[in-house]
Amino acid sequence: MQTHRRIVIATIFLVLALGAWNWRPFTDQDEIAPSALTNRLAPPPESQAPPSSEPPLNKRQSDSGSQHKITLLPATALTSELHSPETNGEDDLHLLDALFIAFRQATNGNPSGENYEIVAALTGQNAKHVAVIPPNHPAITLDGVLQDRWGSPYFFHSISADRMEIRSAGPDKKLWSDDDILTEKYGPAP
Amino acid sequence: MKSVSDRLNGTIHRRDFVRQSACAALGITGVVNTLANLRLVTAAMAQNTPSDDYRALVCLFLNGGNDSNNLLVPRSGDFRVDYETGRGVLQIPAEQLHPINPLNDSRDFGLHPNASPLQETFNSGHLAFVCNVGSLAYPIPTRDDYLNKTVPLPPQLFSHSDQQTQWQSSIPDQPFQSGWGGRVADLLHAGQNPDSKVSMSISLSGINSFQIGTSGTVTQFVTTPNGVAGLAGYGKNYQGAMNRDGTYKRNDQGRRLRAFEEIMNLTHANLLEDNYNKIVQRARASEGTVGATLEMANNSGVEFEELFINAQSNLGDQLKTVAKLIAGRSAIGNRRQIFFCRVGGYDTHQSQLPSHANLTAELSNAMRAFYQTTERLGLQDQVTTFTCSDFARTFTPNGTDANAGADHAWGGHAMVMGGAVNGQQLYGTFPQLILGAGDDAGRNRGRWIPTTSVDQYAAVLARWFGVDSNSMETIFPNLPRFDDPLSSARPNLNFMNGV
After folding, report:
1. How far off is chain B from A134, nearest CA to CA, in Å?
2. pLDDT tens-digit series, residues A126-162
């Protein structure tokens, strides 16, 4: 009985410690080793984003010496599954959908704009300074664009503050073609 | 007071019986259906009601984000070069554009190849463009102010639902509570519409944010382009249940409708139940009057079908119905009326060129037909039509082949049409069509930062409609932010005559 109690207490302690680790503050100076996230990540996709003379907003803001501490939300743990060889493109979208839900719960609304602006928000450049994707996740290019497992930028269709349609161009890397993968169909386009 | 269930259980007192009988009698004689109202409406329309003091605002909401970059297009000059550079596969050849002659801008503009009806209306002085309008919380003086977030922005930019709501509320930085059309109606209804029989806010496209008021005194009345949406199961215009003299038919439908209306005419001790009945009664009353007005307009001698022969479309049907309701305005009893029309399909992420061509044809033909109908009614100076849309679309395409579309952007060009419009002019500021600089919010997609806010655009319309200067801040609480000459350029928004 005594042993059983000790096990329960130890388990609670472990859960609390894990929770505290997940909620620890993350700063721009911190490095998250990809191996710490997962050892099953797909190789980082080659950047397909158009070259830009301007640095991405999230990169630019990091460089400008933002003093805000970014808090990684527990949902970031999910990103270890993003582009995993054991999952597929549809799973990736479900996972991203879950990340958007976590982001909305934390910030009261979806991020909006182009891919790089949405990624900037998801990685901590938002009013609450919370992230649901680590800024150095391999699926994010140097230009701050989140790509699918085939190397094409995801297309984010902002429907409303709580509805975001996510589209992957699929294996043919062409958006709006038959092999596109979409999150939940939200009904007819507005 | 006894509950309705008590009464229905048979415990009816004499006083209750008398009251219910009276209500039931009202339910028969006052039953508000199209047929029963025809005589009333005929009499009202026959009166030579002076139309001098009638004004109507007609909102055309283009759902999804209109690509106004391809509606008002440079034809030659440096900005044509910028246009061709940025638009890529979405560019329209200069020779296909319909040239327009703005009185206040010497640059060479043309309208979309399918917008020749708008070209005629513009060049004849009854249509104007207000350039680069969009939702703003504060003026954004420079692109750096946007990029560095030094100016508060409307929340959820580039999101359909939020931008539609913000256009319709004109208070983008607050949670939605009311639309600016609804607030205008709240302000003007009692003073301007003492003989009102139908709501001052009529929608041809369902419930909308634009016409939601703050006080609840003016509620939207929704009708359809095909006529009034009545109770189901009684045939068109209740012909299955009612005789032409307004009495109920002696069949199941007649008895059922009679029973329904008698129930709806009962009074209730419970305020919620009582109010529910009143709402149903009011809706039925409006339904009857509007239905009869449309019926009478059809027989008024105005050739609505002929006038809209080139506008046989969803939007054309909506505007035709609006025209009929304007023709029958004396029966409706309002001197100030706000209409809301809406057409979808503008979210052209793919195959934009053909999709937008069809949408532009529909829009142009419907607007032209509507203007000509107001001319036929002699009311062109009293009816002003204006367009709104979620946002414009990115200047750059999202692909390189013929199936390319464009994505969500920000500021776009709106149109204002009517005899009271100081037409054939371009208002606001046409954006610099340069990617990654000037008006572009973001890297290089051509999402123009609006130089005119929805508040400024809407305020001119509201002013023409009768909102006095002292009440402008009640309707548009953010307007003073844009009136400061130190923080915003001269707005160039004198697009309504007499404002």
Report:
1. 23
2. 999 999 999 999 999 999 999 999 999 999 999 999 9
Report the distance separating Cα B234 and Cα B422, nearest Å: 48
Measured at the CA of B488, the angle between CA B483 and CA B490, to 5 degrees, comes to 80
- On whether the CB atoms of residues A144 and A134 are closer than 8 A, the answer is no
Q: How far apart are CA B321 and CA B422, in angstroms?
A: 26
Q: What is the ipTM of this complex?
A: 0.82
Q: What does B113-130 look like in DSSP terms, one character per residue? A: TT-HHHHHHHHTTSEEEE
CB proximity list for B45: less than 8 A, separation 6 or greater: B293, B296, B300, B328, B330, B331
Q: Do B333 and B326 contact (CB within 8 A), yes or no?
A: no
Give the pairing of strands B336-343 and A130-131.
Answer: unpaired
Q: Between β-strands A70-72 and B201-203, what pairing exists: parallel, antiparallel or unpaired?
A: unpaired
Model confidence pTM above 0.80: yes
User: What value does the mean pLDDT take over residues B259-278?
Assistant: 92
Of B148, B184, B450, B202, which is closest to residue B325 (Cα–Cα)?
A: B202
Q: Which fold has domain B55-219+286-483?
A: Alkaline Phosphatase, subunit A (3.40.720)
With CA atoms as reference, report the closest residue to B210 among B461, B447, B468.
Answer: B461
SS3 B327: helix
Are B130 and B429 in contact by the 8 Å Cβ rule? The answer is no
* Non-local CB neighbours of A113 within 8 Å, separated by 6+ positions: A158, B157, B158, B442
Cα distances (angstroms) measured from residue A163 to each of A109, A153, A174, B125, B286? 9, 19, 24, 42, 36
The residues of B whose Cβ lies within 8 A of any Cβ of A are: 63-64, 147, 155-162, 164, 344-345, 347, 349-350, 390, 398-399, 403, 405, 407-408, 436, 442-445
